[in-house]
Amino acid sequence: MAATGGRRCRRLEGETARAVLANADTLLFDCDGVLWRGEAALSGAPAALGRLAAAGKRLCYVTNNSSRTRVAYTEKLRRLGFPPAEPRHVFGSAFCAARYLRQALPPGAAAYVLGGPALSAELEAAGIPHLGPGPAALPGPAPADWAQAPLEPAVRAVLVGFDEHFSYAKLCQALRYLLRGPDCLLVGTNRDNRLPLEGGSAIP
């Protein structure tokens, strides 16, 4: 697919596709639902990328799935039979969010994370203090207890991604950080409402 002047995409076929590929030295590929669904590569995708790599094209991968680090994506590409890739060839939303916060936050500021281990790992690699990943229980039996739970003074951003331990307790804490003042950033890793899986199924 290619964008036209009106920013709409049109399918590239035949000679047009060959001409575009001939003039491109780097190609960007989405991953979930494009190269694979869940743990199954789409039919023909590994072979097609293998031919492009053999022709000297540099292959890079972009994804708004924050549940994996760049290293994990290179391992998945290898496991599903795609050409070898290095972490520097993968631009995931977890990595990009960490890079953005490293630039946007003042020194010593921390992030509260509604997300999983991949977000935590990318923040760690970027040198950003953070808290929040993993299960969290409500701090008491009544709403008044929840409203009085301690807040970390250094938190200046709430980072939202795929969180297998998402709960009301974490949502409540995230909102309290955001309401504490206008200098607390809200950063989301994607706007998707579903994740495509094998066999045409999906999860929210």
UniProtKB/TrEMBL annotation:
List the record's Gene Ontology CC terms alphabetically.
Answer: cytoplasm
Q: Which PANTHER family match?
A: 4-NITROPHENYLPHOSPHATASE-RELATED, GLYCEROL-3-PHOSPHATE PHOSPHATASE
What molecular functions are annotated in GO for this chain?
sn-glycerol 3-phosphatase activity
In its UniProt entry, what is this protein called?
Phosphoglycolate phosphatase
- Entry's SUPFAM superfamilies? HAD-like
Q: What InterPro entries does this protein map onto? A: HAD-like_sf, HAD-SF_hydro_IIA, HAD_sf
Pfam families, sorted: Hydrolase_6
